[in-house]
Design brief:
This protein has 8 helices and 6 strands, in the order E-H-E-H-E-H-H-E-H-H-E-E-H-H. It has helices spanning about 35-50, 75-85, 95-100, 105-115, 125-130, 140, 180-185, 195-205, and strands spanning about 25-30, 55-60, 90-95, 120-125, 145-150, 165-170. A 6-stranded parallel β-sheet has the order 3-2-1-4-5-6.
Amino acid sequence: MSSHTAGCPRQGRAPGSLPRVSERIGILGGTFDPIHSAHIAAATAVRDALKLDRVVLIPAGDPWQKRGKVIADAQARLEMARLAVEGIEGLEVSDIEVLSSEPSVTADTLEALAREGREFFLILGADAVVNMPSWRRLDETRDLATIVVVEREGESASPPGAGWRVEHIKIDRFDVSSSLIRERLGQGLSIDGLVPAPTAHYIQEHGLYTQPQ
């Protein structure tokens, strides 16, 4: 496992020049159909464990691996994510993939966000890590970010192949998923505590996921 420390040595800097700004940024992408409390728990756990400056949640605009299976449209999923992180320090939402006309590809997004001094930490659940061999531009992703594997009790996973920078973060088991949320809503059951309250209100207000799954 490896971790990179932000900072820039003062030696060798020209008199009067500004120091290079370094920023450690977590990236948590997903369909978020809908976003739920386990997503927020994972984001804040990684933020604290790795002392990240911020964690950016990125709803997929065109999640090509889930075409035909996504229920809410991209704008609704984006708004639900924004509502979910309101008031949480260090968490924010980007619309970069929602605004893109291309399928959502992790390497493309990381390259678009890259700036001098930014260091990316790509946050993945163990199940997403297992699915990495199916990613587009997987090899290029290796050089763009440290992989942060969020593992619940009984879970363990590592990226395929050698050369990855990896951090493993253990979190408490929280058995909630987007499919469970949709199923409960389709049955007219409560989602209290499973989804941040502002997001739950948005879902109710817009009548999302009311059809049985």
